[in-house]
Amino acid sequence: MAAAAPPPSSPSPPPQQRQPPFHELVRGSSGLDKVLLRGARGFSAEVYLYGGQVTSWKNDHGEELLFVSSKAIFKPPKAIRGGIPICFPQFGTHGNLEQHGFARNRLWTIDDNPPPLPVNPAIKAFVDLILKPSDEDLKIWPHSFEFRLRVALGPNGDLSLTSRIRNTNTDGRSFSYTFAYHTYFSVSDISEVRVEGLETMDYLDNLKGKERFTEQGDAIVFESEIDKVYLAAPSKIAIIDHEKKRTFVLTKEGLPDAVVWNPWDKKAKAMQDFGDGEYKHMLCVEPAAVEKPITLKPGEEWKGRLALSAVPSSYCSGQLDPLKVLQG
Fold first, then answer.
1. What is the pTM of this model?
2. Catalytic residue ranges
3. d(C-alpha 240, C-alpha 221), whole Å
4. Fewer CB in a 10 Å sphere around the end CB: N or C, the chain?
5. Coil, helix or strand for 135?
6. If 0-12 CB within 10 Å is exposed, 13-18 middle and 19+ buried, where does residue 78 land?
């Protein structure tokens, strides 16, 4: 009996246009490695392995949404001035370590096999980084930890940073830390910017010896230096740039506080890595855990997340439409 004829071969799929990689490791300033994230429709972000620091976030028009100083120094051990520095295990001078801790001036590594993290399947452009303490770090902060960071670019250009910090001490000791995503937003002119969502909040004023006050008035506007830690801040905060008709929506999880900072003219001139007039074009609004340090027992893990989006501003009698942003 004759053998059955083989089934007709299916036609080969048409050749697809080659897509650029969703993430790529390249050389950045001063030869430091950085990861380029590319999303749909031209969105992009850049993350330096030095500091695990996001230094760029661009919309689909190629406009830069984060501020990095023109005088930023991309040379260890100096921290990079701008983008989203990570303050760990200490925020500011809330402790005995160097200002803002050491995570922002250590070399992180790409984490090829991170523990599972629930993720939107539509997000293709992301990178996982990890930081573990060196012997030198253990001398200044004697605790063993694993700090995992995922930076992701969503299909609509949203940027998210998810931090997971685990206590890996083997001697049974807990540790405590303060933390912030020290986010520098690029703005048209600081006098044209307002922040909504922090009205009536209590805050610590770092310009007045960390004294506690309650915010008065409606939105926060800027006419002089500001360095405040807003306590028990809401999960959504809006930064409204009137001139650019753009609103940044900041969403935070696991981080109760929010720091608002602008150095203004005198302090700007005193900073080596900051242009004299650049204070006009930046504002830091930073999800943080400052007032009450986070404590982890051995084996425990903490997760803290920052999500950023940029949307066209909507106005109604000069106010932001709360349904679209703060309650959206």
1. 0.90
2. 182, 286
3. 10
4. N
5. helix
6. middle
